[in-house]
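Input sequence (94 aa), recorded before submission:
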Amino acid sequence: MQFDWISTSGLIAILLLALHKTHQKTTLRQIPLKTVATYFLTSNTLMASLLLISYGIFGWPQNVINDLGRWPLLFSGAALFKISYDTIKDEMQT
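Predicted structure, C-alpha cell format:
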C-alpha cells in the first residue's frame, strides 16, 4: 500500500474520529455528521500545513523558494496548522 495525500488524510480523520469517540464516550453512530465532515476537512488542512512547513524547511520546489523564500511557506504552514489545531480542539470539546 502506498501512502499518498488522500490515504494519509483519511487515516488522520479516522484517528480523530476514534479519539472523539473515546473522549466523548459515545458510539460511532452517535457522532454527528457535521463532526465527521469537520474531521475529514480538517485532516486535509492539516496535511496541507505539514506539506507547506516541510517545503519551507527542506527548500523544495526550488522555483518557489527562489520566488518567495522560505519564510512565507513556513508562516502559511504554521497558520494553517494553528487553524487545524483550534478546529480539532473545539470539536473535541463539543
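Checked by second reader. The mean pLDDT is 88.
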